[in-house]
C-alpha cells in the first residue's frame, strides 16, 4: 500500500484562462501562488491556494476538448468546498450572477449542500459544516 499523506492538488484545464482565473480568484477567493506561461505548449498555468493551502493548478491549452457530459462523465465528477454558512455563500454567488442549484440535504449527515458551475461547466459543490 502507498503511504499517501494528503491530496496535493487538482488540475483543471479551462477554455478561457482569464475568465476562469477571475472566477477562481475573485469569486471563489483563491490566491495565485505562481503563474507561468509555457511557450512550448502555448499554455498558462496558475497555482492557486485557498487559505494558504495549495489546491488547484489552472491550465490553458489551445482548443481543449469539451467535457462530454455532466458530473456522471468518466473522470473528475466535481470539486467540493466546505463552508460554514451556505446561505451566505449562495447569496454571494447569486450576487455575482452565478446560477446555483437548489439546496439539498445529505441523507446520511443531514448537512446542506448545493452545486454550481465554473466558467467551463465543471461542477463545484458547496457543503455546509
Description of the molecule:
With 129 residues, the protein is of the alpha/beta class. It has 2 domains: 62 residues, 2,3-Dihydroxybiphenyl 1,2-Dioxygenase, domain 1; 52 residues, 2,3-Dihydroxybiphenyl 1,2-Dioxygenase, domain 1. The protein is 16% helix and 37% strand. It is built from 2 helices and 8 strands; from the N terminus they run βαββββαβββ. The strands form 2 sheets. It has a 4-stranded mixed β-sheet, with helices on one face. The protein has a 4-stranded mixed β-sheet with strand order 5-8-7-6, with no helix packed on it. The longest helix is centred in the first third of the chain and has 11 residues. The chain is globular, with a radius of gyration of 16 Å.
Amino acid at each position: 500500500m502507498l503511504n499517501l499523506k494528503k491530496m496535493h492538488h487538482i488540475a483543471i484545464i479551462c477554455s478561457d484562462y482569464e475568465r476562469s482565473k477571475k472566477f477562481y480568484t475573485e469569486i471563489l477567493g483563491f490566491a495565485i501562488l505562481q503563474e507561468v506561461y509555457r511557450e512550448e505548449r502555448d499554455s498558462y498555468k496558475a497555482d492557486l491556494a485557498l487559505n494558504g493551502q495549495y489546491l488547484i493548478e489552472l491550465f490553458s491549452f489551445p482548443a481543449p476538448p469539451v467535457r462530454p457530459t455532466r458530473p456522471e462523465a468518466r473522470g473528475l465528477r466535481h470539486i467540493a468546498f466546505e463552508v460554514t454558512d451556505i446561505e451566505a455563500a449562495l447569496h454571494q454567488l447569486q450576487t455575482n450572477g452565478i446560477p446555483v442549484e437548489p439546496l439539498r440535504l445529505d441523507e446520511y449527515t443531514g448537512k446542506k449542500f448545493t452545486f454550481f458551475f465554473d466558467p467551463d461547466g465543471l461542477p463545484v459543490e458547496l457543503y455546509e459544516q
